[in-house]
Prior knowledge:
Blueprint: H1 3-6, E1 10-15, H2 20-36, E2 41-46, H3 55-67, H4 71-79, H5 82-88, H6 90-99, H7 104-113, H8 117-129, E3 137-140, E4 143-146, H9 154-171
Helix pairs in contact: 3-4, 3-6, 3-7
Amino acid sequence: MDDAASTPPVLDYWCELQCPDCHRAQRDLSALRERYGDALEIRLRHFPLEKHKHAYAASQAAEEAYAQGGGDAYAAAVLERTAELGKRGERLLLEVAGDLGLDVEEFETALIDGRHLLVVDADQAEGRAIGVTGTPTYVIGGQRLDGGKSQDGLRERIEEIADGLLRGARDGS
Length: 173
């Protein structure tokens, strides 16, 4: 089996952790993770929007959570509290890290020293380059699906594309 056949298809989703639409998208992402497991790689990509004051810090905090091995759980926990993030900012980001048993002092240091700025900036630049203007936006199999206005039908479309990619990988095409 060659590497291309053993590499799972990738679903990139551009997300902003203070975005109510991204909060609503978590149900679909959970269902996709449950359905596909390791057969589909789901990657959070950062796209903090200027209209949300704490989104950029939240993206950096999520990267620190990934560095500590708890990125997906951290992103989901912050997205559950988008309204609260708007009010409490970095205090909430640190609280969520503590709730998940992550190293809060390291989070504080990461937010001060900016060690994850390049990752966040690179995601945002790549998103802009492919036409991302809002969140959530999904890319799978070279197709961009915008979910900022409505999530209706998006999961079904993602599943359709993922199933096709997985069939193609099995068939060797």
